[in-house]
Design a protein that fits this description.
Oligomer: single chain
Strand content: under 5%
Strand order of the largest sheet: 1-2
Length: 570
């Protein structure tokens, strides 16, 4: 069978997901099982993969998905525990009193608070927390949704304590080991773990221009669409506070990515940046000359609102001190640091509790491991959730409610995740060297697509690599799953075109964050919390333009890195 035809068949599972979720607007719980089924059929009828092998690969993907799901569960459990204890309302109450200027509020809540929540939890939770808070401060619901989706972008590559890199690139482990074995020149890593660190470092460089450009652009964009004067200038007048906010975030973000690894840039960087900007706002540092507001809801266009239009009267109440409310997140950061430093010995001990399942269904090449205690969902998330019960004097009923709500919230993501990662595992296994598993010795499904596209796109691929990552997030609802889905494809593209693998993979990770703006999963979630159900298309039509701007920026930086600054890097 010809390579173009193989590439077309290999693309069908992705096209199925795209048509199901975008064209037919079906949920991921329906689309991903159908997409997985398409991959199974392609593997069975075209690649002639044994049925048992396809099932073994699906189980392998399920084990990987379980590790991700434990992290998702732990992250949501912390949020639900803080909601039940009153800590989250206390945090929201503290946010309300910082400044009357709605541009300042948009940056503090939609950018910095959301960045911290992204680092701690990820998986769509920042917009779901930040958007209702902006509503409570008097923002039009549509404006609140657009702000929270677009400003929560650069933290996403390191969301949920670095999971998009630490787990999202896990299927590259064999390729990394092979590259080290060949003694290729231009390697900036010595093992898989250091490979993830290098990718995180390059990702920050790709995000850096937009960390300073996007906040200014978004304030102008929002005041042009929703402001009383319909003016870009109203937003741009807060440029000094935008630069102050971007600097406060980017300095710890860059430092932690380059020194400490991918787990900390958004979590700790977001927390430090948030503290600095809140302090600066209270001191009047770099504040706009005039206070801007969106006026009352009576002046709004009816299409900006939904079922909770007049929410500006809502006030949050402090249920405890701010220190006590923030203490669980402070503990999470501290425990993460202590368990990621090699010299302390905790990391080695936690990693020693690894469960490895070898020869799944008798296929020696199919195995998977899961380090249950080292997963941040277990330590620190679940551990801190239990400690919070005592720190916040929670009742048994509150604890029960938090845990039950967490189980309810992870049910749908679990279904979609298991099938999505199962699909990725089949993609990977389709290129096996064993004649019994791949009788025609066809290239793997992602590699077939990569080889075909390479001939069409050529050396301009670095510009488009980020958009592929964004497409993955748009389809799957997750930067992590986008990386699982497309990282090997991106590696194959880089090798086919003689480009830097490290830079192209970094562009994939950075691009996966772009998809946060247009991701159907996130848009549906934010619509639900601001009362805009049924207006998802209206939001997508507004977030699409910042997505293009950001994607072009990442693409230009990737091109410069590949051909000007780092042309000899592997």
């Amino acid at each position: 069978m010809t390579l173009p035809l193989l590439a077309l068949i290999a693309s069908i599972p992705i096209l199925v997901a795209l048509v199901m979720m975008v064209g037919l607007r079906l949920p991921a719980t329906t689309a991903m099982p159908l997409s997985w089924a398409a991959a199974v059929l392609a593997g069975w009828f075209v690649w002639d993969m044994p049925v048992g092998y396809l099932l073994a690969l699906t189980i392998q993907g399920g084990i990987t998905a379980l590790g991700i799901l434990i992290i998702v569960f732990g992250a949501i459990l912390i949020l639900m525990t803080l909601r039940e204890s009153g800590a989250m309302e206390t945090i929201q109450s503290g946010m309300q009193s910082i400044s009357p200027d709605m541009r300042v509020q948009a940056l503090i809540i939609g950018f910095l608070f959301a960045a911290f929540i992204e680092g701690a939890a990820g998986f769509g939770t920042p917009a779901a927390l930040a958007a209702p808070l902006l509503l409570a401060l008097g923002f039009p619901p549509l404006a609140a949704a657009v702000i929270c989706l677009c400003l929560n972008t650069f933290p996403v590559s390191f969301g949920a304590v670095g999971v998009p890199i630490t787990m999202g690139l896990s299927y590259l482990r064999d390729l990394v080991d092979a590259a080290l074995g060949t003694g290729a020149t231009g390697l900036l890593f010595s093992d898989y773990e250091s490979f993830g660190v290098v990718i995180g470092q390059w990702v920050t460089i790709m995000h850096l221009p937009m960390i300073f450009i996007l906040p200014i652009f978004m304030l102008g964009f929002i005041t042009r669409l929703f402001g009383p004067n319909r003016s870009w200038r109203d937003g741009f007048q807060a440029w000094k506070f935008c630069l102050f906010s971007s600097t406060a975030f980017s300095l710890p973000y860059l430092f932690l990515a380059w020194v400490a690894g991918p787990e900390f840039p958004s979590l700790i960087g977001g927390l430090i940046g948030l503290g600095l900007v809140v302090w600066g706002a209270k001191k009047g540092l770099a504040m706009p000359d005039q206070v801007f507001t969106f006026k009352g809801s009576r002046a709004w266009d009816p299409e900006w609102t939904g079922s909770v239009a007049a929410i500006e009267e809502t006030r949050f109440t402090a249920r405890m001190s701010q220190v006590r409310a923030w203490m669980p997140y402070i503990l999470i950061g501290l425990i993460l640091v202590l368990t990621r430093i090699d010299e302390l010995g905790l990391k080695a001990w936690l990693l020693s509790k690894t469960l490895t399942i070898s020869s799944i269904l008798g296929y020696e090449s199919v195995e998977e491991s899961i380090s249950i205690l080292y997963l941040p969902g277990t330590i620190p998330f679940m551990l801190v959730a239990l400690l919070t019960v005592f720190m916040h004097s929670m009742s048994l009923g509150q604890v029960k409610s938090a845990w039950l709500d967490t189980f309810r919230r992870v049910k749908s993501p679990a279904i979609a995740l298991f099938f999505a990662v199962g699909l990725v595992s089949i993609f990977r296994g389709s290129g096996a060297d064993d004649l019994l598993l791949n009788p025609h010795q066809y290239p793997s499904m992602p590699l077939a697509v990569a080889e075909s596209i390479a001939g069409l796109v050529g050396q301009s691929w670095p510009f488009f690599a980020g958009f592929v990552g964004g497409l993955g997030s748009f389809i799957t609802g997750s930067n992590t799953v986008s990386n699982l889905l497309f990282a090997e494809f991106q590696w194959g593209m880089a090798e086919q075109l003689g480009l830097s693998v490290q830079i192209i993979i970094a562009a994939q990770v950075a691009g996966g964050a772009l998809g946060n703006m247009i991701c159907i999963h996130n848009i549906v979630a934010v619509c639900a919390v601001v009362g805009l159900a049924g207006k998802e298309g209206m939001i997508l039509s507004r977030t699409f333009w910042p997505f293009l701007l950001y994607g072009a920026s990442v693409g230009l930086v990737a091109m410069l890195m590949c051909f000007v600054f780092l042309p000899d890097i592997f």
